[in-house]
């Protein structure tokens, strides 16, 4: 199945494995919670057990250095793509309100990005992520 939209998550390549997984999970949650109609129907196995619904389309995860993350953020916002950020300071907080506060405290060009999620029409999103390698 082909989709008109795309979900891309970009994670800083020098993070510890647990940090990469944490960042990816939080950013995927941002897309799920912030974009209408990206979640499919609930699942059920052959025994009748119910499971939560998931994205209805693939999520591509990329790796990039800090400078590239900043460029992708700026380009995505400039193209009007839905964007979520995860900053280094968010590793030091313990809850959602504190996360929002540490992001709000820093001007956009000075954010210490460790990851971001981008959602939008396929062509502009592909141009925004052009040249990035999928995470190994």
TrEMBL record:
Give the top-rank taxon of the lineage listed in the UniProt record for this protein: Bacteria
**Which InterPro entries does the UniProt entry name for this protein?**
DUF2000, Pep_tRNA_hydro_II_dom_sf
Q: What is this protein called?
A: DUF2000 family protein
